[in-house]
Amino acid sequence: FTYGFTAWNGSFFDCDVVRQGYELNVKPVVRKGGCRPFSLFSSDRENIILESVKLAEDGSGDVIIRMYESKKAGVTAQIRMDFDAFGLSISGAALCDMTEQERETLSVKDKKVSLEFKAFEIKSLRVKLCRE
Questions:
Q1: Which long-range contacts (CB under 8 A, 24 or more apart) does 55-63 make?
Q2: For range 14-33, the mean pLDDT
Q3: Residues 81, 41 contacting (CB under 8 angstroms)
Q4: Beta bridge partners of residue 113, listed in sequence order
Q5: Rounded to an integer, what distance in angstroms lies between the CA atom of residue 46 and that of residue 13?
Q6: Contact, 55 vs 64, CB < 8 A?
Q7: CB within 8 A of 98, min separation 6: which ones?
Q8: How wide is the angle at C-alpha 12 spanned by C-alphas 117 and 69, nearest 5°?
């Protein structure tokens, strides 16, 4: 059983309580070995949580990213995707439903897509990859 308390000054939007909750409840996976640091995905908005990353269920090799807005604040976010560490590049991206069916093709520019989120909205992104 684990619990934590936190306090902050200011608005809920400006606090990092959601991040603290993840740090408390999601333990990092550690393996022997080494590599240079890299990030496959990132958001320019603190309130957009990139919840999970997985391969598409259809065996296509596409990557599915599930994310959500965490602080009841609609925002436009830039999601950065970088697969250079694996010798892969992005050939396309689309919003998809929870069954991973594409619903809206997105424009990828400089390894980024722009997404508009409503308060607490969940989005799934399907990323198509190709060898460089």
A1: 56/100, 56/126, 57/100, 58/100, 60/128, 61/129, 62/126, 62/127, 62/128, 62/129, 63/126, 63/127, 63/129
A2: 87
A3: yes
A4: 79
A5: 9
A6: yes
A7: 124
A8: 20
Distance in angstroms (rounded) separating the CA atoms of residues 96 and 104: 7
Looking at the DSSP bridge assignments, the partners of residue 98 are none
> What Cα–Cα distance (Å) separates residue 105 from each residue in 46, 77, 95, 101?
25, 17, 6, 11
The one-letter amino acid code at 49 reads: I
Phi and psi torsions of 37, nearest 5°? -65, 145
Give the global pTM.
0.82
Using DSSP's 3-state secondary structure scheme, residue 24 falls into: helix
DSSP 3-state of 50:
strand
| H-helix segments, the chain | 17-25
Contact 67, 125 (CB under 8 A): yes
Sheet arrangement for strand 102-106? 48-55, 63-69, 122-131, 88-96, 102-106
* Model pLDDT for residues 75-88, shown as the tens digit of each residue: 999 999 999 888 89
